[in-house]
Amino acid sequence: MIDLFQARRESHEARELGHEFKIQEGGVSLEVPRVEGQAFYPSGDAPRMTRDGTPMENIKEGLADLPKAVGSAGAGLVAGAAGLPGDLVSLIGGLGSALFPGDQGRLEAFTTTMTDISEAIGSERFLGLYTDIVNNAGFSEEDKKMMLDVAEGSSFFSIPGAAAVAKGGVDTIRSGVVRAGEAAQARLDDAAGSTTLAAGGDMETAIDKALSYAGRKVRKSGQVVGAPPGINSQKTLDTLRVNLEAAAKEGEPGRFWYERSGKAILDALGGDKEEAEKLVQAIAITSATTGVKPNFDHALRAYAQFKAGRPIKTGRFPAAMSKRVQAVFEGTDWEGRKTNNFYINLMREIDPTKVQGVTADIWMMRAFGFKNPDGSPYSGSPTDAQYTFVEEETKRIADRLGWEPQQVQAAIWVANKAKDEGTSVADAAFDYSDALLNNKAQISWESIPGRTGNHLPEMFDAPYEVQQEYHVAVSKVFLDEDGNDLVAKELGIPTPGDFEAPGYFEGKVSPGTQTELAIPKAGGTKYGEVEPGALDLMHAYAAVRGVVMKQDGVGFHRPFYNATKTDSQGVLIEIGRQFSERETKQLGEIMAELSGHTDYNPIAAPGGVRLINFAFARKNKDGSKAMEDTWFSDDMLRTNAEFHALVKQAVERLDLDDDAGVKLGTFNAQEGYVGNDWSVNKNGEDYIRAASSAGSPDLQRKVRSLISKLTARIDEVDRDFSERYGFTRNADINQEYRGQGPVADGPPQEAPDG
C-alpha cells in the first residue's frame, strides 16, 4: 500500500517534470493536467490506487479526519499558543492530512472559507498566519513546500479542478468546515455586543466571523444549501454576491431605514421606550403582505383606539391581528420579541442591546433571485434553509462594507423595490418616519388668554415682544424636563413636534404655535375622516390646552391631500417659508374684506399657510348647509369652489416681503373647534364636555389630572407677569383645578372694565 503523502509527493514530482498524472479504476479516472508554474495534488476523494493499478484501501481508512489531524499535530501548532481559534488550526491542519477534497463543491467550501478569512484580516496578515501554522505543524519539508505552494499561487487557494471526480467518499473537509463554522458562530453568540470587526481590529473576532459563514457553503448535489436554484458553483455564488453588493451600494440612501423609523417613533412618543416598543410591535404584527404606509396606518389606528379606551379593530386581517395587538398593548408578552427580525430591526434605535438579525421578506427574497415554483415573482415564506442563506450572505456583505446587517438588508430591499416598481431609490426608501409625517394633524393655539375670561386683559395691547416673552414662558409649562409635550405624552398621542408661527384670530396677530399630532384616518375611508379614537384624543388635547391657557377656543385640522377639488374645503398657500407677522395680518384682512366675516383665519403650515372653509361657513354643491345650526346667514355661506376662487383673489392682492413664488394646492380636512365662554363657565365646562362626549372614563380622568397639574405651573407664570408688568389676574376662573382657593396671595384681583 502506498502512503497518501507519498502519493501526493509523487504527483507533485510528476508535475514538476512536466508529466501527466493518471489513475484509473473501473470507469472512473482522475487526470491531473500540467499547469505551468502551479502545483496540483490528487483529490482525497478519488479512488486510491497503487502505481501499478492495485486499488488502495478505502479512503475512510486512509484519511484522518480533521479532529485527528489536529490531535496529531496540534502540539506543534503555534496558532493555538497565539490564542487563535482552534477550528482555524483544524482547517489548515486538515490540508496536511486529507489532501484536497475531490468534490469541487467541497473544495470550494474549504477554499472560500479560507479566502473569507484572508479578506477579513488582510491577505498579507493571513498569509503570515497560514505560513506559521504550516511551518510549525510537524509536516515534512516536502509537505510544507506543497502546502505553501497553494498559498503563494497567483490566486490565494485558487486551484485547478480535476477532470473527473470519484463518487461517494468521506466528507472530511466538509465536516471540518461545518464544525468550524458552528463553533465560531457559538463563540460570536457568546460574545454578542462585546466584540466588533473593524480594520486593524480584533483578529480572533474577524476570523470567527469569516468561519461563521462556513455552514452555508456546504453543497448537496451541487446546489448551495438554501440558495435559489442555479446557485450550484463557486462561480454562480460569486456572481450572486457581486450583484447583491452592487444592489446594497445602489440602495445606500435607504441604508438607515430601520434607524430612521425607530428614532422617529421614539421621538414622537417623547422618548418613552416602552410606548415606542408597543407601537413597533403593532407595526410588526400588522405588517404581513402590507406596504409601509398602510402598515403604519394600521398600527397607528390601533394605538389611538387603545389610548382612547376603544376596542381595537385594525390590520389587513383584523380578526386575528386586532386580538394580538390588543394583548400586546395590555402587557402580554409577544412571541415575536425574540424571533421576529423585522421587529428587532425596528428596535435598533429604541433598544440598541438587541442583537440584529436580517429580515427576509418578499422583496429580499426576490432580490436574491427566489421565485415561486411556477416562475412567478416570489410571494411565499422562506424555509429555514433559505432564511439562513439570506441571513448569512447578508452578514457577509455587511462585514465587507463595514455596515450592520440590517443596513445591508435595508439597502438591498430599497434598491430592489425601486427596480421592481419602476420608482427612484429615494421614493422606494419611504420608511415609517415618512409615514408618520403623512399622518400629521395640527392643533393651533395662542398663549394670550381669551377675552371672555377677563384674565390678563392688558396682554392684548402689550408690545409684541412682551407677548412673545409670555408665549415662550407658557410653552414651557407644557414641556417635561426633556422638552417633550406633556399633554401628548400623557394622552398617548405621537407628536412629530411643533413649530412657532404668527397666529391670527379676531383680526389680531399674536405669537402662536402649531402642534403636530400623528392622527390616522378612519379604516375603510379614502379621505376626510379621522379614526374616531384619534378624534377623541384630539378633543382631549384641545380641552387641556384650552382650559389651562384660558382660551376662548382651540382649533385643529387633519389634512388629506388626495381629495378631489370638489371635496376640498382647504387651500394651501405655499411660499417656501413661514408667513411673517405682516403677511399673516395682511392675508387675514384681505380675506375678511372679501368674505364679509373674520372666520377665514390663516393657519400657519410648513412652508406657508392654510385656509379652511369650515363647516359653519360652508354650503354644499347643491346649496344645502354643511352645518344646520350654523350662526352664519345663508348669503354668507360658500361652496368649496367659491371659497377657492376667493382665496385666489386674496393671493393676487397679497404683497409678500420678498419675491417668493406662490403655489396653491387644495386638500380635504377633518376639522374641529372646541371653545368655552369663560364669563359663563368659570372652569372651562364646555371644553370638558367636548372631551367627554365620546371619550372613555379613563381618558376623562387623564384630562382632569393634566389640567390640575398644569394649572399650578401656569399660575406661577401668570403671577410673574402680573408682578412685573402690572397685568390683572382673574382668580375666579379654574378654581376647581387648584384645590386650594385663589391663586393670588390676597383677595382676588378685579379686572378693569373693558
Summarize this structure as a short list of keywords or feature phrases.
elongated, 754 residues, alpha+beta, 29 helices, disordered C terminus, 3 domains
Characterization of the model:
This protein is α+β, with helices and mostly antiparallel strands. It has 3 domains: 39-46 and 59-220, no CATH class; 248-434, no CATH class; 439-737, no CATH class. It is 46% helix and 10% strand. It is built from 29 helices and 12 strands. The strands form 3 sheets. It has an 8-stranded antiparallel beta sheet, with helices on both faces. Strand 6 and strand 7 form a beta hairpin. The longest helix has 29 residues, at 697-725. 46% of the residues are buried.
Straight-line N-to-C gap = 119 Å
Give the number of DSSP strands.
12
User: How helical, in percent, are the residues?
Assistant: 40-55%
Largest sheet: 8 strands, antiparallel
Radius of gyration: 37 Å
Tally of discrete structural domains: 3
